[in-house]
Amino acid sequence: MNKTAYTIPVDGKVMACLDASIYADSVIDHAAWASVRLDSGLVCLHVLDRETAHSPTADYSGNIGIDTQSALLEELAELDAQRSRVALRQGRALLERAAQRAVAAGAINPESLQRHGTLVETATELEDDVRLFVIGKRGESVDFNKGHLGANLERTVRGVNRPLLVTSRKFRPIKRFAIAFDGSATTRKCVEMVSMSPLLKGLDCHLIAAGSEDGKLRKGLDWARQELEAAGFAPQIIVQPGDSEQVISTQVGQLDIDLLVMGAYGHSRIRHLIVGSTTTAVLRSCTIPVLLLR
User: Fold this and answer.
1) pLDDT of amino acid 73
2) What 8-state DSSP symbol labels residue 211?
3) Confidence band (pLDDT; 50, 70, 90) for 158?
4) Which strand ranges, in their side-by-side order, compose the sheet holding 259-263?
5) How far apart are CA 40 and CA 285, in angstroms?
6) Distance of CA 10 to the CA centre of its chain
7) CB-CB contact of 5 with 186 (8 Å)
8) What DSSP designation does 49 have?
9) What's the pLDDT score for residue 213?
10) Rounded CA gap, 75 and 72, in Å?
11) N or C: which end of the chain has fewer CB within 10 A?
12) Contact between 47 and 122 (Cβ < 8 Å)
């Protein structure tokens, strides 16, 4: 692997993508943890989404008189303006609370940033100065009972070209992590990025692989062990036959893993076929934070 291809800016910042969901505290806790580990600045980002900031209004112009219609339109416009002002104040309050929580968790002078637009557009625009994005698994509008991932998460994973930490609902100290490994170029890149970054240094390291330990997989695991050992890790390797999602889920539980590292969607057609991919299935079922790398 060509290590010169690693282009994540080491002077970039950790960006916490916040909304009013129950994941907000977890996002800032994980972002503060990463900021301290990486010795990077922290930015708390809140985006006022154009699609949700203004609710659509029905057109009753054919059913009411001109004077009534004009008065109604003025009233609706004022209601929209009020909603926008309330959303703006709520966002500022969210950012203020997040900054205070980040400082309490050890982050130094966190910044606050509020933008209008969509999260993926904003993240893409800002990513040149970002080392790591942190985002909750689900946003404020997701039906938790159906187990759906947040639309912002899926779009952001597809749209940005930076590592992305998908948080669990609550933060817990991260002591051991696992890399989901299959010998592919993507998972080899994961090993290289983990080896070069200070984010996980000093933590217990595991490699989890699904399938049979044949020559190709064995060769890949031997390479990964050497890379990680050269970086100061002492990786434990677990190979289990079976479906990737099931093997990963089972081993994460049995090994009491605190953080899972996986390859994000590559640049192939699978980027546009998210539902059904192993990464998405693991994200849906996993109760620990997942670090997505590409």
Assistant:
1) 78
2) S
3) confident
4) 111-117, 42-49, 13-18, 130-136, 164-167, 290-293, 259-263, 176-180, 204-210, 236-240
5) 30
6) 19
7) no
8) E
9) 76
10) 5
11) N
12) yes
118 vs 61: which has the higher pLDDT: 118
In the three-class reduction of DSSP (H, G, I as helix; E, B as strand; rest coil), residue 56 is classed as coil
Contacts of 139 (CB under 8 A, 6+ apart): 19, 21, 23, 150, 151, 152, 153
84-90 long-range contacts, CB within 8 A, separation 24+: 84/48, 84/53, 84/54, 87/48, 87/53, 88/48, 88/114, 90/20
198: nearest Cα among 131, 263, 260 = 131
Do residues 232 and 261 touch, judged by C-beta distance below 8 A?
no
For residues 260-285, give the mean pLDDT: 63
With beta carbons less than 8 A apart as the criterion, state whether 224 and 181 touch: yes
- Half-sphere exposure for 162 (CA within 13 Å, toward CB): 26
Which pLDDT tens digit goes with each residue over 228-247? 999 999 999 999 998 888 89
Per-residue pLDDT averaged across 148-165, rounded? 81
**pLDDT per residue as tens digits for the range 80-133:** 777 777 778 888 999 999 999 999 999 989 999 999 999 999 999 999 999 999
**Two structure tokens written together for 276:** 């059904």
Amino acid at 62: G
Cα-Cα-Cα-Cα dihedral sign, residues 92, 94, 98, 101: positive
Residues ≥6 apart with Cβ < 8 Å to 154: 274, 280
Fill in the amino acid letter for 293.
L
* 179 vs 181: CA distance, rounded Å: 6
What angle (nearest 5°) sits at the alpha carbon of residue 278, between those of residues 275 and 283? 80
